[in-house]
Prior knowledge:
The chain contains 16 helices and 14 strands. It is α/β, with parallel strands linked by helices. The chain folds into two domains: 23-67 and 321-423, Aspartate Aminotransferase, domain 1 (Alpha-Beta Complex), CATH 3.90.1150; 69-317, Aspartate Aminotransferase, domain 2, CATH 3.40.640.10. The strands form three sheets. It has a seven-stranded mixed sheet, with helices on both faces. A hairpin with a 2-residue loop joins strand 11 (348-352) and strand 12. Helix 3 packs antiparallel against helix 12, helix 4 (90-102) packs parallel to helix 12 (302-317) and helix 13 (321-342) packs parallel to helix 16 (409-423). The longest helix has 22 residues, at 321-342. It starts with a helix and ends with a helix.
Amino acid sequence: MDNNLKLWQDSLKLFPGGVNSPVRSFKTIGETPIFIRKGKGAFVYGFKKERYLDYCLSWGALILGHSNNIVNAALIRQLELGTSFGACTENEVIFAKLIKKAFPSIEKMRLVSSGTEAAMTAIRLARGFTKRDYIIKFDGCYHGHSDSLLVKAGSGVSTLGLSSSKGVPNDLANKTISLPFNNIAKLKKVCAKFGKKIAGIIIEPVPANMGLILPQEAFLEEVRAVADKIGAVLIFDEVISGFRMHFGGAGDIYKVKPDLTILGKIIGGGLPIGLVGGRKDILDQLAPMGEVYQAGTLSGNPLATAAGIAVLDYLDRNKNIYEELKRKTQILAACLKQIGKRYRVSLQVNQIGAMFSLHFSKQPVRDYDSSKRQDMNKFSCFYRALLKRGVYLSPSGFETNFLSTEHKFKDIENTLDAVKKVLS
């Protein structure tokens, strides 16, 4: 029995479904999950010495690739000083200054340990600040698994065919209104009815958990205007989009300023971290300044902030890498579309910055409903065939793929050759 299969059989006895996060199960792929032994650069390695070109990159977190030397050196320095203190550190201050440099809308911030925790804190802040209860989110946008937000969520919830989750009280779920992305008319209609009850509007400005979806022209501006009109807190969830398109967020690109921003993934350099930041008057509602409570022993963990400082400092000093990442991803996306046409396969490819998604669909994918209409059987067959040829995509048709600075043009050529062989 090979090591990978043995590990999987052991995992099934130890963890629910054999995994510690649902999408890792490869449930819709119809394949035994790959146990990763190591990663270096743009590649990950399994236990049978197989090598895969990685477009998942820890779900977008590794913009500098696996086991980056700069990040490793920062972690080694911090390891010699200590791993956790549950107290204030210099790293927190250095890290926060880099975040503020990239996100001018963030006046103050609170560091936490995950994107889920950051989203949960942002919702609590919005409710505490406005003294209202209702939250608006958008279908297919995933903001972690906290109770208030697990309603028509994307990501693994879509992969598993669940629209919500058991264990979420109806009274709490009823306080969350989920609306179609890119549909400003429905947002205005709901806000006209519930306006004075709505504490916040939370949105991925560039959704990446139902595949990659781009906001239609002026949509985000209209959302900002609606939030202003009803006095709701506008929250941008940039856990995935943050630092993926430029040194900053989607708010800069679309010229829309949120009240609160949620960040994660890249800012930890591969280690667990998240933050919520934004307007000073809202952040000052948090304890110990205000009456909105949040705490965490590992918040601002010195290892995570050390890795984050290394990555953010590098990105700040080398902003030219974003143009190269964008160019490589544009080439990959354009060629994928051409290959689909050549082999008469209905393949939609969405792309922005260093992110792209693939959908086996005849119609453009612009929202949650159109994403759900994709042919998941074709995606699963395509995924398995690419995996056999050494290409590792994010293992779900509802996820986004990423490039790192370690992906070379030769890697893209090899990927396209593999796609040609599969689609032919």
